[in-house]
Amino acid sequence: MERNKSGLTPEQIRRYNGETLRLLSLYLNLAADTVTPETVRQIAEETGVSREYAYASVLAAVCGLETAGRDRLYFENYFVPMIKEEDPAAYEADPYCRTVRIPSKKRGRWEWRTMRLPACEAFVRQDFRVFPDGRMIPMLGYFMREFSYPAVLENGREWMTLMPNEIATTLPAVRQATGRVLTFGLGLGYFAFRASEKPEVESVTVVELSPDAASLFCEEILPQFPHREKVTVITADAFDFLDGMMRDGEYDFAFADIWHDVGDGRELYRRFRTYPPRFPHTRFSYWLEDTIRCYEDPSLWP
Questions:
Q1: Is residue 3 scored above 80 in pLDDT?
Q2: Of 211, 178, 214, whose CA–CA distance to 194 is shortest?
Q3: Separate counts of helices (H) and strands (E) for the chain
């Protein structure tokens, strides 16, 4: 049976792709705070490995892997490359985080608040990474100290946060934004803020479904934007806007971000993908597109 440089067969890779997502979903939902800074430091100091390797070892053990036995290749080829120790100061220095102060406010179903991520609690740090051999690996990170971040909750459920994943997966769209920009989904206004800061961006139009979220943003957050004059918020359904209000050539760039995660995003992404042919003068981008496309690719799955 053919093996690649990782020592894994194509069949093993597809099986491990699925198994990794299953294990990490359980871990992130049920035991994301299991690893502690003390444990990571102790293992690293006693064994001479890096803190990232120590973290990966503990994570794998929690997931039931025998890292020095039958699961060695799985551990080395999946868990080791997925873990990265991140510097919270790099995110705290983000222009939005340095400029905008999030109030603790509720309106209707929506609540804005500041939340805290404990030291060493795992978080998703960017889109899936697909390696040339077909390994599909979620990218996880952790901080060695507590991290505070703003969040929007709908009926008590986190809808949008400024965790590293949201920043990392939104910045590619920010870099593409130019001219007259359109974005579907408001959240905390992170994309609107970063896009409006660019000299080459003329305007940013935000289409937001919830009147409560839109009014709270316009009252409390938008006034803090240095270039708030560029930003316009329209309360409308994204697809109603596309079907009846948007004209071809009206916008140069559009960013779709109306889903909570990949679970509800796949169907909405497919629906959005039917619109670019109707608006050939607008370049479209989609939040979490790389990860969604991994789920849509049957060659990556058992």
A1: no
A2: 178
A3: 13, 12
**Phi, psi at residue 144, to the nearest 5°?**
-90, 0
Q: Model-level pTM?
A: 0.93
Q: Are 134 and 78 in contact (CB under 8 A)?
A: no
For residue range 163-213, list pLDDT tens digits in order: 999 999 999 999 999 999 999 999 999 999 999 999 999 999 999 999 999
Edge-to-edge strand order for the sheet containing 283-286?
231-235, 201-208, 179-184, 253-256, 283-286
DSSP state of 73: H
| Rounded Cα gap, residues 191 and 215, in angstroms | 17
| H helix runs in 139-220, sequence order | 164-176, 190-196, 211-216
DSSP lists the bridge partners of residue 150 as 114
Sole residue written with tokens 């779709």: 256
Long-range contacts of 158-164 (CB under 8 A, 24+ apart): 158/115, 159/110, 159/187, 159/260, 160/187, 160/188, 161/115, 161/188, 162/91, 162/94, 162/96, 162/97, 162/188, 162/190, 163/117, 163/123, 163/124, 164/86, 164/91, 164/123, 164/125, 164/126
Dihedral angle at the C-alpha atoms of 291, 296, 300, 302, nearest 10 degrees? 130
Q: CA angle, 241 as apex, 253 and 174 as ends, to 5°?
A: 25
CA 130 to chain centre: 16
Summarize pLDDT for 237-255 with one digit per residue, the tens: 999 999 999 999 999 999 9
**Least confident piece of the model among 107-116, 126-135, 179-188, 293-302:** 107-116
